[in-house]
């Protein structure tokens, strides 16, 4: 892992086409801006981990899609 120190207004370049800029520092919060080509996916790590976990749990589930739909319909009626 590369560790850098940056101040407000400074940037980091990743390759030729990704720029990460420090926009604001407030207490222990840092606002960053990312300029990247549209085809580069950018996700918060906690969101990625959450979706990955839900997908793994869904793979382990033995419930079928039709059973899930039936359960949803029952919940709507209650």
UniProtKB/TrEMBL annotation:
<dbReference type="GO" id="GO:0006402">
    <property type="term" value="P:mRNA catabolic process"/>
</dbReference>
<dbReference type="InterPro" id="IPR036107">
    <property type="entry name" value="CsrA_sf"/>
</dbReference>
<comment type="subunit">
    <text>Homodimer; the beta-strands of each monomer intercalate to form a hydrophobic core, while the alpha-helices form wings that extend away from the core.</text>
</comment>
<keyword id="KW-0678">Repressor</keyword>
<keyword id="KW-1005">Bacterial flagellum biogenesis</keyword>
<keyword id="KW-0963">Cytoplasm</keyword>
<protein>
    <recommendedName>
        <fullName>Translational regulator CsrA</fullName>
    </recommendedName>
</protein>
<dbReference type="GO" id="GO:0044781">
    <property type="term" value="P:bacterial-type flagellum organization"/>
</dbReference>
<dbReference type="GO" id="GO:1902208">
    <property type="term" value="P:regulation of bacterial-type flagellum assembly"/>
</dbReference>
<dbReference type="GO" id="GO:0006109">
    <property type="term" value="P:regulation of carbohydrate metabolic process"/>
</dbReference>
<comment type="function">
    <text>A translational regulator that binds mRNA to regulate translation initiation and/or mRNA stability. Usually binds in the 5'-UTR at or near the Shine-Dalgarno sequence preventing ribosome-binding, thus repressing translation. Its main target seems to be the major flagellin gene, while its function is anatagonized by FliW.</text>
</comment>
<dbReference type="InterPro" id="IPR003751">
    <property type="entry name" value="CsrA"/>
</dbReference>
<dbReference type="GO" id="GO:0048027">
    <property type="term" value="F:mRNA 5'-UTR binding"/>
</dbReference>
<dbReference type="Pfam" id="PF02599">
    <property type="entry name" value="CsrA"/>
</dbReference>
<comment type="similarity">
    <text>Belongs to the CsrA/RsmA family.</text>
</comment>
<dbReference type="GO" id="GO:0045947">
    <property type="term" value="P:negative regulation of translational initiation"/>
</dbReference>
<keyword id="KW-0810">Translation regulation</keyword>
<keyword id="KW-0694">RNA-binding</keyword>
<dbReference type="GO" id="GO:0005829">
    <property type="term" value="C:cytosol"/>
</dbReference>
């Amino acid at each position: 892992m590369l560790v850098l120190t940056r101040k407000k207004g400074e940037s980091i370049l990743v390759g030729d086409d990704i720029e990460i800029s420090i926009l604001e520092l407030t207490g222990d919060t840092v606002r960053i801006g990312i300029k990247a080509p549209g085809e580069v996916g950018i996700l918060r790590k906690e969101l990625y981990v959450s979706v990955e976990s839900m997908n793994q749990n869904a793979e382990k589930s033995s419930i079928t899609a039709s059973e899930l739909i039936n359960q949803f319909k029952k919940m709507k009626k209650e």
